[in-house]
Amino acid sequence: MKYCSKCGAQIPEGARFCKQCGTPVANVEQPAYIKEEKSNTVKIIIIILIVALLIGGGVFWFLNWNKTKGEDHHHEMIIGDSAVSSKEMVAQAAEAQGNLAEALGAIEEKQQESAQVNEPTDAVPGIVHYMHTDDYPNAADMRWYTADVMRNGVPAGVNRISSLEDAMDGWKGIIYNDLGNKFNSENIEFVNINISGTEANLKARITTFAMFDVATEEVTTFDNDVEVYTGKWQNGKIRATGAGTINITDMWEKDNHQYAVGTFDSPDGVPALVAMVRSARVY
Questions:
Q1: Do 48 and 106 fall within a single domain?
Q2: Any idea what DSSP says for residue 41?
Q3: How many other C-beta atoms can be found within 10 angstroms of the C-beta atom of residue 212?
Q4: Range of 7's domain?
Q5: Are residues 56 and 143 in the same domain?
Q6: How far is CA 150 from the centre of its chain?
Q7: pTM for the whole thing?
Protein backbone atom coordinates (compact mmCIF):
# COMPACT_ATOMS: atom_id res chain seq x y z
CA MET A 1 0.00 0.00 0.00
CA LYS A 2 1.26 3.49 -0.92
CA TYR A 3 0.73 6.71 1.01
CA CYS A 4 0.74 10.32 -0.04
CA SER A 5 3.95 12.08 0.96
CA LYS A 6 2.07 15.33 1.54
CA CYS A 7 -1.06 14.37 3.49
CA GLY A 8 -0.39 10.71 4.36
CA ALA A 9 -3.59 9.41 2.78
CA GLN A 10 -3.64 5.93 1.27
CA ILE A 11 -3.26 5.78 -2.52
CA PRO A 12 -5.22 2.99 -4.30
CA GLU A 13 -3.30 0.78 -6.74
CA GLY A 14 -3.15 2.36 -10.22
CA ALA A 15 -4.05 5.88 -9.05
CA ARG A 16 -1.98 8.71 -10.53
CA PHE A 17 -3.01 11.41 -8.05
CA CYS A 18 -3.86 11.58 -4.36
CA LYS A 19 -7.63 11.90 -4.00
CA GLN A 20 -7.21 13.97 -0.86
CA CYS A 21 -4.78 16.67 -1.95
CA GLY A 22 -4.07 15.96 -5.62
CA THR A 23 -0.36 15.30 -5.21
CA PRO A 24 0.98 13.28 -8.23
CA VAL A 25 1.61 9.59 -7.52
CA ALA A 26 5.16 9.91 -8.84
CA ASN A 27 6.02 11.84 -5.66
CA VAL A 28 4.19 9.39 -3.30
CA GLU A 29 6.26 7.47 -0.74
CA GLN A 30 5.78 5.92 2.66
CA PRO A 31 5.56 8.34 5.57
CA ALA A 32 8.66 8.60 7.76
CA TYR A 33 6.87 7.04 10.74
CA ILE A 34 6.10 3.93 8.65
CA LYS A 35 9.77 3.59 7.68
CA GLU A 36 10.80 4.00 11.33
CA GLU A 37 8.36 1.28 12.46
CA LYS A 38 9.79 -1.14 9.88
CA SER A 39 13.35 -0.29 10.91
CA ASN A 40 12.53 -0.91 14.57
CA THR A 41 10.88 -4.23 13.70
CA VAL A 42 14.02 -5.41 11.88
CA LYS A 43 16.18 -4.42 14.87
CA ILE A 44 13.93 -6.34 17.27
CA ILE A 45 14.08 -9.46 15.07
CA ILE A 46 17.90 -9.28 14.95
CA ILE A 47 18.12 -8.90 18.75
CA ILE A 48 15.78 -11.89 19.27
CA LEU A 49 17.93 -14.03 16.95
CA ILE A 50 21.13 -13.06 18.80
CA VAL A 51 19.58 -13.86 22.20
CA ALA A 52 18.29 -17.21 20.89
CA LEU A 53 21.75 -18.11 19.61
CA LEU A 54 23.33 -17.22 22.95
CA ILE A 55 20.79 -19.28 24.90
CA GLY A 56 21.15 -22.21 22.51
CA GLY A 57 24.92 -22.10 22.80
CA GLY A 58 24.71 -21.99 26.59
CA VAL A 59 22.38 -24.99 26.71
CA PHE A 60 24.66 -26.95 24.34
CA TRP A 61 27.71 -26.17 26.49
CA PHE A 62 25.92 -27.15 29.71
CA LEU A 63 24.68 -30.47 28.30
CA ASN A 64 28.14 -31.39 27.05
CA TRP A 65 29.79 -30.29 30.30
CA ASN A 66 27.30 -32.31 32.32
CA LYS A 67 27.84 -35.36 30.08
CA THR A 68 31.60 -35.07 30.45
CA LYS A 69 31.26 -34.72 34.21
CA GLY A 70 29.07 -37.80 34.31
CA GLU A 71 31.57 -39.80 32.24
CA ASP A 72 34.42 -38.78 34.54
CA HIS A 73 32.54 -39.30 37.78
CA HIS A 74 33.81 -42.85 38.27
CA HIS A 75 37.36 -41.51 37.99
CA GLU A 76 36.84 -39.17 40.95
CA MET A 77 36.99 -40.01 44.59
CA ILE A 78 35.37 -38.04 47.34
CA ILE A 79 37.70 -37.34 50.24
CA GLY A 80 35.80 -35.56 53.00
CA ASP A 81 33.96 -32.75 51.22
CA SER A 82 36.27 -32.41 48.19
CA ALA A 83 36.59 -34.33 44.93
CA VAL A 84 39.97 -35.58 43.77
CA SER A 85 40.43 -35.63 39.98
CA SER A 86 41.73 -38.54 37.90
CA LYS A 87 45.21 -37.03 37.47
CA GLU A 88 45.49 -36.30 41.18
CA MET A 89 44.30 -39.81 41.96
CA VAL A 90 46.98 -41.44 39.78
CA ALA A 91 49.72 -39.33 41.33
CA GLN A 92 48.44 -39.79 44.88
CA ALA A 93 47.84 -43.51 44.42
CA ALA A 94 51.40 -43.99 43.19
CA GLU A 95 52.70 -42.05 46.18
CA ALA A 96 50.38 -43.94 48.52
CA GLN A 97 51.59 -47.28 47.16
CA GLY A 98 55.18 -46.32 47.96
CA ASN A 99 54.24 -45.01 51.39
CA LEU A 100 52.24 -48.14 52.16
CA ALA A 101 55.13 -50.38 51.10
CA GLU A 102 57.46 -48.48 53.44
CA ALA A 103 54.89 -48.63 56.23
CA LEU A 104 54.37 -52.36 55.85
CA GLY A 105 58.10 -53.00 55.81
CA ALA A 106 58.63 -50.93 58.93
CA ILE A 107 55.70 -52.47 60.76
CA GLU A 108 56.68 -56.04 59.89
CA GLU A 109 59.90 -55.54 61.79
CA LYS A 110 57.79 -55.10 64.92
CA GLN A 111 54.91 -57.32 63.94
CA GLN A 112 54.62 -60.63 65.71
CA GLU A 113 53.73 -63.74 63.76
CA SER A 114 50.36 -63.27 62.07
CA ALA A 115 47.33 -64.56 63.91
CA GLN A 116 45.54 -67.46 62.29
CA VAL A 117 42.07 -66.93 60.89
CA ASN A 118 39.30 -68.52 62.89
CA GLU A 119 37.73 -71.61 61.42
CA PRO A 120 33.93 -71.35 61.10
CA THR A 121 32.13 -73.77 63.38
CA ASP A 122 29.26 -74.30 60.92
CA ALA A 123 31.32 -74.90 57.76
CA VAL A 124 29.32 -76.53 54.95
CA PRO A 125 31.28 -78.65 52.41
CA GLY A 126 31.55 -77.00 48.98
CA ILE A 127 30.46 -73.57 50.24
CA VAL A 128 32.68 -70.51 50.36
CA HIS A 129 33.15 -69.32 53.95
CA TYR A 130 34.64 -65.88 54.50
CA MET A 131 37.14 -65.94 57.29
CA HIS A 132 36.67 -63.86 60.39
CA THR A 133 40.06 -62.55 61.46
CA ASP A 134 41.40 -60.67 64.46
CA ASP A 135 44.62 -59.78 62.63
CA TYR A 136 45.80 -56.63 60.85
CA PRO A 137 47.29 -56.45 57.32
CA ASN A 138 50.65 -57.85 56.27
CA ALA A 139 52.73 -56.82 53.27
CA ALA A 140 50.59 -58.56 50.67
CA ASP A 141 47.12 -57.81 52.00
CA MET A 142 46.62 -54.27 50.67
CA ARG A 143 48.30 -54.29 47.25
CA TRP A 144 44.92 -54.71 45.54
CA TYR A 145 43.98 -51.30 46.91
CA THR A 146 46.85 -48.93 46.16
CA ALA A 147 47.89 -50.73 42.95
CA ASP A 148 44.40 -50.98 41.46
CA VAL A 149 41.20 -49.98 43.25
CA MET A 150 42.46 -46.61 44.51
CA ARG A 151 43.22 -45.62 40.91
CA ASN A 152 40.55 -47.45 38.94
CA GLY A 153 37.62 -47.91 41.30
CA VAL A 154 35.69 -51.09 42.02
CA PRO A 155 36.37 -53.72 39.31
CA ALA A 156 33.63 -54.59 36.86
CA GLY A 157 31.76 -57.86 37.18
CA VAL A 158 32.26 -58.34 40.91
CA ASN A 159 29.64 -59.81 43.22
CA ARG A 160 28.37 -57.03 45.47
CA ILE A 161 27.79 -57.85 49.12
CA SER A 162 24.12 -57.14 49.74
CA SER A 163 23.58 -58.91 53.06
CA LEU A 164 24.89 -57.77 56.44
CA GLU A 165 25.32 -61.43 57.37
CA ASP A 166 28.01 -61.74 54.67
CA ALA A 167 29.85 -58.69 56.04
CA MET A 168 29.82 -59.59 59.73
CA ASP A 169 32.86 -60.21 61.96
CA GLY A 170 36.50 -59.23 61.58
CA TRP A 171 38.35 -57.65 58.64
CA LYS A 172 41.96 -56.60 58.15
CA GLY A 173 42.19 -52.95 57.16
CA ILE A 174 44.02 -49.68 56.82
CA ILE A 175 42.92 -46.10 57.45
CA TYR A 176 44.98 -43.76 55.27
CA ASN A 177 44.77 -40.33 56.87
CA ASP A 178 45.42 -37.07 55.01
CA LEU A 179 46.44 -38.54 51.65
CA GLY A 180 48.54 -35.85 49.95
CA ASN A 181 49.46 -34.29 53.34
CA LYS A 182 47.24 -31.22 52.97
CA PHE A 183 46.82 -31.05 56.75
CA ASN A 184 50.44 -31.99 57.57
CA SER A 185 49.28 -35.16 59.27
CA GLU A 186 49.66 -37.93 56.66
CA ASN A 187 49.79 -41.34 58.31
CA ILE A 188 48.58 -44.89 57.84
CA GLU A 189 46.80 -46.81 60.58
CA PHE A 190 46.82 -50.61 60.52
CA VAL A 191 43.57 -51.85 62.01
CA ASN A 192 41.11 -54.66 62.49
CA ILE A 193 37.46 -53.74 61.93
CA ASN A 194 34.84 -56.01 63.45
CA ILE A 195 31.25 -55.59 62.30
CA SER A 196 28.39 -56.84 64.48
CA GLY A 197 24.80 -56.11 65.43
CA THR A 198 21.78 -55.66 63.20
CA GLU A 199 20.95 -53.54 60.17
CA ALA A 200 19.27 -50.93 62.36
CA ASN A 201 21.75 -51.14 65.24
CA LEU A 202 25.17 -51.88 63.76
CA LYS A 203 28.49 -51.71 65.58
CA ALA A 204 31.92 -51.28 64.01
CA ARG A 205 34.71 -52.03 66.48
CA ILE A 206 38.03 -50.62 65.26
CA THR A 207 41.21 -51.87 66.90
CA THR A 208 44.36 -49.96 65.91
CA PHE A 209 47.56 -52.01 66.10
CA ALA A 210 50.10 -49.61 64.62
CA MET A 211 50.50 -46.25 62.87
CA PHE A 212 53.11 -45.25 60.30
CA ASP A 213 53.98 -41.53 60.08
CA VAL A 214 54.72 -40.81 56.42
CA ALA A 215 56.86 -37.73 57.08
CA THR A 216 59.13 -39.23 59.75
CA GLU A 217 58.77 -42.89 58.67
CA GLU A 218 58.35 -43.77 62.32
CA VAL A 219 56.11 -46.58 63.54
CA THR A 220 54.01 -46.34 66.68
CA THR A 221 52.42 -49.50 68.05
CA PHE A 222 49.39 -49.66 70.31
CA ASP A 223 48.00 -52.01 72.94
CA ASN A 224 44.25 -52.31 73.22
CA ASP A 225 43.49 -49.11 71.24
CA VAL A 226 39.80 -49.76 70.58
CA GLU A 227 37.02 -47.45 69.43
CA VAL A 228 33.40 -48.44 68.84
CA TYR A 229 31.17 -46.80 66.23
CA THR A 230 27.42 -47.26 66.00
CA GLY A 231 25.21 -46.86 62.98
CA LYS A 232 23.26 -48.67 60.28
CA TRP A 233 23.56 -51.04 57.37
CA GLN A 234 21.60 -49.90 54.32
CA ASN A 235 21.73 -51.13 50.71
CA GLY A 236 25.17 -52.67 51.07
CA LYS A 237 26.66 -49.64 52.81
CA ILE A 238 27.75 -48.94 56.37
CA ARG A 239 27.60 -45.59 58.13
CA ALA A 240 28.61 -45.45 61.78
CA THR A 241 29.60 -42.63 64.09
CA GLY A 242 31.76 -42.37 67.19
CA ALA A 243 35.04 -40.48 67.38
CA GLY A 244 34.36 -39.45 63.80
CA THR A 245 32.29 -41.07 61.06
CA ILE A 246 33.12 -44.19 59.08
CA ASN A 247 31.41 -44.69 55.70
CA ILE A 248 31.90 -48.03 53.94
CA THR A 249 30.52 -47.31 50.49
CA ASP A 250 31.43 -50.43 48.47
CA MET A 251 31.69 -54.08 49.50
CA TRP A 252 32.25 -56.95 47.08
CA GLU A 253 33.54 -60.48 46.58
CA LYS A 254 36.11 -61.65 44.05
CA ASP A 255 38.49 -64.60 43.73
CA ASN A 256 37.74 -66.00 47.19
CA HIS A 257 38.25 -62.68 48.92
CA GLN A 258 36.00 -60.00 50.28
CA TYR A 259 36.90 -56.34 49.82
CA ALA A 260 35.50 -53.06 51.11
CA VAL A 261 36.39 -49.39 50.67
CA GLY A 262 35.12 -46.12 52.01
CA THR A 263 36.06 -42.97 53.89
CA PHE A 264 36.57 -41.80 57.44
CA ASP A 265 35.87 -38.27 58.66
CA SER A 266 37.67 -37.39 61.87
CA PRO A 267 36.41 -34.79 64.40
CA ASP A 268 39.22 -32.38 63.42
CA GLY A 269 38.15 -32.45 59.76
CA VAL A 270 41.11 -34.45 58.40
CA PRO A 271 39.79 -36.81 55.69
CA ALA A 272 40.86 -40.42 55.41
CA LEU A 273 40.40 -43.45 53.18
CA VAL A 274 39.41 -46.88 54.48
CA ALA A 275 40.18 -50.23 52.86
CA MET A 276 39.28 -53.67 54.25
CA VAL A 277 39.98 -57.24 53.13
CA ARG A 278 39.66 -60.84 54.25
CA SER A 279 40.10 -64.19 52.59
CA ALA A 280 37.82 -67.19 52.11
CA ARG A 281 38.03 -70.93 52.06
CA VAL A 282 35.97 -73.64 50.35
CA TYR A 283 35.52 -76.75 52.49
A1: no
A2: H
A3: 24
A4: 2-72
A5: no
A6: 12
A7: 0.62
* DSSP alpha helix (H) spans, the chain: 32-72, 86-110, 143-144, 150-152
Please answer whether residues 204 and 225 qualify as being in contact, where contact means their C-beta atoms are separated by less than 8 angstroms: no
Is the model's pLDDT at 127 over the cut of 60? Answer: no
Mean pLDDT of the chain: 75
Given a contact cutoff of 8 angstroms between Cβ atoms, the answer to whether 123 and 283 are in contact is: yes
201-256 tens-digit pLDDT: 999 999 999 998 999 988 898 887 999 999 999 999 999 999 999 999 999 998 88
Domain boundary residue among 46, 72, 98?
72
Contacts of 140 (CB under 8 A, 6+ apart): none
For the chain, how many structural domains are there in total?
A: 2
Euclidean distance between CA atoms 165 and 34, whole angstroms: 84
pLDDT of 49 higher than 60 = yes
CB 274 within 8 Å of CB 263 = yes
pLDDT of 1-34, one tens digit each?
677 777 777 777 777 777 777 777 664 445 544 4
Same-domain check for residues 54 and 182: no
Q: Are residues 39 and 145 in the same domain?
A: no
How many Cα atoms are found within 13 Å in the side-chain-facing hemisphere of 246?
A: 29
For the chain, first and last CA: distance in Å? 100
Q: Dmax of the chain from CA atoms?
A: 120
Q: Which residues does 149 contact at the CB level (< 8 Å), separation at least 6?
A: 155, 259, 261, 275
62-95 pLDDT per residue, tens = 555 554 444 333 333 443 334 444 445 445 555 6
Q: CB of 2 within 8 A of CB of 9? A: no
